[in-house]
Amino acid sequence: MKLMSRTLVAGLAALLLAGCSGSGKKELPPAELEKFDAEVQLDRSWKRNIGVGQGELFNKLKPTVDGLTLYAADAKGRVVAMDRDTGSVNWQVKLKEPLSGAVGAGGGRVMLGTLNGSVIVLDENDGSELWRAQVSSEVLAAPQTNGDVVVVQTQDDKLVALDIGTGEQRWIYESSLPVLTVRGHSAPVVSLHRVYAGLASGRVVALDAQNGIPLWEQRIAQPQGRSELERMVDIDGELLLNDQTLYAATYQGNLVALDSETGNIRWQRPTSSHAGPAAGFGSVYLSQAGGTLEAYDQSRATPLWTNDSLQRRQLTGPVAFSSYVAVADFEGYVHLLAQTDGRLVGRVRVDSKGVRVAPIVQGDTLYIYGNSGDLAAYQLR
């Protein structure tokens, strides 16, 4: 519990840092929403309640899509499998564990992590439990699989690979945890032969998926400042693997493009973000911790546009959706921006209790999971 308390405090501090300049001045309020002439509209095609949603802790229980099925879970252990086109329920189960890391799917499995450090794996067909395994600390990000191993990143910054059939541990990778960290982790990226992960130390590591041997490690942010609070450089947003380039962003650090084979830095830009980058139409998009949205040329890191109209609104990570960039905020609004110049072109409110996890895009549908537990599908009109 000591580790959990430490990271919860750090998470609150990080939110304060996002809205303050560090000069001791009173925190500024969230920016009021600007009026604009809507150019596009989001229409809801279906909505389904999953349960209590994110719960009382600062969970980020992001749903996932595998094939034609959408999987979602709530903080009290409800797991629901739905038809992604209609929202009709294929199956649902209630686990007797508080969930904190959800949901991973693939290889015929649905994978979840708990506050108590359990990894629970269900059958994709009916939700029956196949196995569960205990790891060293709470799991705050969705477990991932390549069909052979299930890889979990724990809050104490360990990476654990479990046999997908039995749950037996194949290997473990341990790293040094800073004194103070933001509560949260990005989910590892697992390919057939490699595992990529962002660490609380501001490093990205690539491991052999079969045996966990490190292939390369790259520091993408150098801790700065005199206090431990100032020196936090966690990688909490999702990593993005696009072709042969791996993108990662740190809190109080950089947005970096890495060669996925060697770990060499192709380019970097100073930034501070709790969310992961998105890519589309040759651009990389990022939500800064303070609420600024940025777009960069994907190959050269040239700044393309900046939108600062959503300052201090606790933005989710962005996603590329059709010709737009979609991002949600703490009041439950989903904002659409033009990919070309970042202007606001559409907005809809989906949950009065807010949205904490990035939208999901599948084909022509945008899925939004609100903090209250409502999961909805939207399409452009």
Automatic annotation (TrEMBL):
Keywords: Cell outer membrane, Lipoprotein, Membrane, Palmitate, Signal. The keyword Membrane applies. SMART domains: PQQ. It is a lipid-anchor. Part of the Bam complex. Part of the outer membrane protein assembly complex, which is involved in assembly and insertion of beta-barrel proteins into the outer membrane. This is Outer membrane protein assembly factor BamB. It comes from Halopseudomonas litoralis. The gene is bamB.
